[in-house]
């Protein structure tokens, strides 16, 4: 599974609409509105690198309200939920 974060600048006043359109794209797991230099961050989970290319350069660029993207590839996941599951014996 390939995990990537896509940081986006979006047209003013179009954050909610753009986020909803992004969620319609297969492989877009979550979308966050954020503070700072970018307006939205999308978390992508895809089975193949080819799918990543299709989503970012094909489907996301087809959304006219997205002005700019910056894609980050994840090497490794560090998650409290994963750690808890690893050590959870199921005994309460």
Order of strands, main sheet, comes to 2-3-1-4
Report the radius of gyration as a whole number of Å. Answer: 15 Å
Q: What proportion strand? A: 25-35%
Low-confidence stretches: none
Shape: globular
The CATH topology corresponds to Alpha-Beta Plaits
Number of strands: 4
Tally of contiguous helical segments: 3
**CATH class membership:** Alpha Beta
- Please report the distance between the alpha carbons of the first and last residues: 32 Å
Class from helix and strand fractions: alpha+beta
Q: Major β-sheet, in short? A: 4 strands, antiparallel
Summarize the structure.
32% of the residues lie in helices and 33% in strands.
Structural commentary:
With 92 residues, the chain is an alpha+beta fold. The protein has one domain: Alpha-Beta Plaits, CATH 3.30.70.920. Helix content is 32%, strand content 33%. It contains 3 helices and 4 strands; from the N terminus they run βαββαβα. It has a 4-stranded antiparallel beta sheet with strand order 2-3-1-4, covered by helices on one side. Strand 2 (28-33) and strand 3 (40-46) form a beta hairpin. The longest helix is centred in the middle third of the chain and has 12 residues, at 49-60. The model has no long low-confidence stretch (mean pLDDT 91). It holds the Pfam family AsnC_trans_reg. InterPro entries: Dimeric_a/b-barrel, Tscrpt_reg_AsnC/Lrp_C. Residues 6-75 form the Transcription regulator AsnC/Lrp ligand binding domain. This is AsnC family transcriptional regulator. It comes from Thermogemmatispora argillosa.
């Amino acid at each position: 599974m390939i995990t990537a974060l896509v940081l986006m600048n979006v047209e003013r006043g179009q954050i909610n609409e753009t986020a909803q359109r992004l969620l319609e794209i297969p492989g877009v797991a979550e979308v966050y509105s954020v503070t700072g230099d970018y307006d939205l961050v999308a978390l992508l989970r895809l089975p193949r690198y080819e799918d990543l290319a299709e989503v970012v350069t094909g489907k996301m660029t087809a959304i006219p309200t997205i002005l700019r993207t910056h894609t980050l590839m994840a090497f490794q996941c560090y998650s409290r939920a994963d750690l808890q599951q690893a050590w959870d014996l199921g005994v309460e």
